[in-house]
Amino acid sequence: MITYVALCAVGAERILGNELKLLGYKLEGRNTPGRVAFTGDEDAVYRANFCLRTSDRVYIQLASYDAPDFDALFDGCYAAPWQDYLRLNSRVHVDKVRTYRSSLESEHAIQGMVQKAIYQKLGDKYNVSSMPESGAECDVRVYIENDTARILLDTSGEPLHKRGYRTAGVLAPIRETTAAVLLQEMFWKRKLPLHDPFCGSGTIPTEAFLFAHDIAPGLGREFAYEGLKIYDAKRALEIKKELAGKIRTDVLCRISGSDIDPDAVRKAERNAEHAAVMAGRALQMIGSDAKLERPVFTVCDVADAKASADDAGILLCNPPYGERMGDEQEASALYGRMSALFDNFPGWGIGIITSKKGFQKDIGHYADKLKSIKAGNLDTTLYIYSK
How many CB atoms lie within 10 A of CB 387? Predict the structure, then answer.
C-alpha cells in the first residue's frame, strides 16, 4: 500500500477524511492542520484527484524518517525510490518547506539539500553526472516536525480547486473547494432546494450541481501525475469511464443563485454551463447523451430574494467581507439589510461565511453554530442558523 497526503483548508480535515473513507481509503494517524494522510493502492492517485471535492492537492509520501541534522536529511531523502517516479529529464522543484519544533529550521538550506539528494539519486540510477532538466516539472514538499522529515511528491499540479469550469470570474470569488466544504457543513442533500443570494460567479450553486449529480469534480482537467513514470493512461481512462457511469442523470435538483450584478449572473450562468458540458463529455465516453438540469440564476437584490419552493431548503452564501470588496462600513450596512433573508426564507437553514467579527451584531441574528474555516489567506467563520 502507498501512503498519500491530501491537503485542505484548515478546519476542513474532518470533512476531507470522510470523503476519503467513502472512497474506501484508510486514514493514517492523526490529522494535522490542513493535512490528512491515508493509505491506498496505485489507483488512489487517480481516484483521489478525480473525486475529492474538498482537497487542495494530493501527494505521495515518498519518505518519512528522523532528520535531526542535514546529513540525516540527505541520507533519508536519497534512500527514497525517486527513480520509480521521476524520469531522467524531470525538473525537480522543492516548492515549500515547513518546519516545527525541529533542529533544522532554514527553509532555503533544507530546499537545497533535498533537491541535491534527489538529483544525486537520479544521477546514480540513470548513470549520468548531470540532469538535463528538460522534462515536466515535479514539485516536492517537505515537512519537518519534531525532527521527523516527510518528503512528499505532488500528483495534482494545479490546485484541485481549479476544476476547469470557472472561466469567467468576479472580484474575490470563493474557492470551489471551500464551497464544497460549506455544502457539507450545512448537511445539504440533493432533495433540498438550495439558493445563494450572493452567487457571484456561481461557485456555490455549481459545486452543488456537481455534488447532486455525483459528478467527480476532476473529470475535466489534467494532473501532474501524467508526467510521472507511474502514470498509466489506460488505467486512468478506465477509472474516468467508471466515474462517468456513476453520474446521476435521474435526479431533479432545485439549485439557484441570484446577484444584484447582471454581469455576475451572466458569468455564473456561463460557468455552470461549462460544468455541465464537462459532465456531458464524460457521459459521452460511455455512450450517454443524457442532459442535466443547470442551476437557475436571476438578477435580484439580496433584500428582495425570496424562497421559490414551498418546502424548506438551504440558503448558503459568501457575501462581501469588507476586506477585498468595499469597506467595513459598507459591509456592515449590507449585513443589516441581509436580515430580510430570515423573513423571506422561513423554515430554511441558513449558512453565511464571513471574516467580519461583528457580523452577528450587524445582521441582528445570532447563529446556532459557528465553524472556523480558512478561506485562502483569510480566517473566516461559517455562521449556521438552523431551520
Answer: 12
- For β-strands 296-299 and 91-100, DSSP reports them as unpaired
What's the pLDDT tens digit per position in 183-222?
A: 999 999 999 999 999 999 999 999 999 999 999 999 999 9
- pTM score, whole prediction: 0.95
pLDDT digits (tens, 9 = 90+) for 288-333: 999 999 999 999 999 999 998 678 999 999 998 654 445 678 888 9
Please give the torsion angle defined by the CA atoms of residues 213, 252, 270 and 355, in that order, rounded to the nearest 10 degrees.
-70
Q: What is the DSSP string of 279-305?
A: HHHHHHHTT-----PPPEEEE--GGG-
CB burial of residue 124 (10 Å; 0-12, 13-18, 19+): exposed
Q: In this structure, what are the phi and psi dihedrals at residue 295, rounded to the nearest 5 degrees?
A: -60, 155
Angle, helices 107-126 vs 70-79, to 10°: value is 40
The strands making up 137-145's β-sheet, listed across from edge to edge, are 26-27, 35-40, 2-7, 57-66, 148-154, 137-145, 91-100
End-to-end Cα separation, the chain, in angstroms? 44
CB 320 within 8 A of CB 331: yes
Number of helical H runs and strand E runs in the chain: 11, 14
Whether the CB-CB separation of 249 and 289 falls below 8 Å is answered with no
Rounded to whole angstroms, the Cα distance separating 186 from 193 reads 13
